[in-house]
Amino acid sequence: MSVDVTCVGSAFLDLTFEGLEALPAAGQERYAGELHTTPGGMAITAVGLARLGLRTALVAPLGRDLAGSLLRGLLEDEGVHWAGPVVDRTPVSAVMPVGDERAFVTFEPPARIEPATVEGTEPRAVIVDIGRLDLVPPGVTAYAVVSDALADRLARRLPAAAAVARALLANRSEAARLTGEATAEGAALALADVVETAVVTCDSEGAVAASGSDLVVVHPPAVDVRDTTGAGDLLTAAYVWGDLQDQPLGERLRRAVVYAALSVRSATGAGSAATLEELEQALAELEGEIVAESSVKEST
Question: Is the model's pTM score more than 0.90?
Fold first, then answer.
């Protein structure tokens, strides 16, 4: 088989308990108004790419258990090809949104991913954790993402091997730890010294991207927030989609920020991923009035 993008990493069966007034204290029971079962982790990015119209594969360890069976069925329904590997038990995450924040309880058994599994999907591009760039087949475009734990481990010492990535995407907290820079703009420019393009997401403030010494800032539209889970994963999906369409940096970041903003209006990450038609409709309605874009050139 051959796909446009292969997403590599951990995928979870997300159990989202929506409608909690507060998190339970020790010994306390609280009731949710709704329970959602959706793909989580790297599977959110895969679902977003598929809904945007790309042929998408997911390489993530899934178990022979009930959770794995459910997750494989959900991915199949989305048109995402799961390529393995098969393990004993599936990662599961309980997601508890409360207001604009979330809490998680996660089970993730250790598992390995072999380069041959990724290569077997014959991808045009691969999205993978920055610590696993060795899984990207030679000659294939790599997009790197950062986990919270990895940002701590690589604090102020981003490996030179990261230079193989066409883009590195991180949230503001991760980028600050990677670079030691206090601002998203400073962190993006510092990361762009290592990778071709760096994208730093800033929650409700949008995102910043740097390529060389060029800096682009995009502010999001105002939306009602229901659940922010997966917004960063979907921003990654839309950014990669735009880059594979050869869109200029400002335009691909603009679309990625809007795509992420659309997702927080409904529950769960994968469940809130918009289609390409829905994204285009939202962009047409905005007409550039809310999403502001600016580019500056830093002096060298």
Answer: yes
pLDDT class for 265, splitting at 50, 70, 90?
confident
Sequence-distant (≥ 6) Cβ neighbours of residue 2 within 8 angstroms: 55, 121, 122, 123, 124
Three-class SS state of 217 = strand
Q: Check residue 291 and give its pLDDT.
A: 46
**Residue 15: what are its φ and ψ, rounded to 5°?**
-110, 105
297: its two tokens: 């050139």
218: its two tokens: 């995009």
Q: What is the mean pLDDT of residues 46-60?
A: 98
As a whole number of angstroms, the distance between CA 204 and CA 220 comes to 7
Closest among 199, 290, 230, 213 to 104, alpha carbons compared: 230
Q: What percent of the chain has pLDDT over 90?
A: 79
**Is residue 201 a contact partner of residue 172, using CB atoms and an 8 Å limit?**
yes
Rounded to the nearest 10 degrees, what angle do helices 231-244 and 249-263 cross at?
150
> Omega of the bond prior to 220 within 30 degrees of 0, cis?
no
All domains in the chain, ordered by first residue: 3-12+40-90+113-297 (3.40.1190.20)
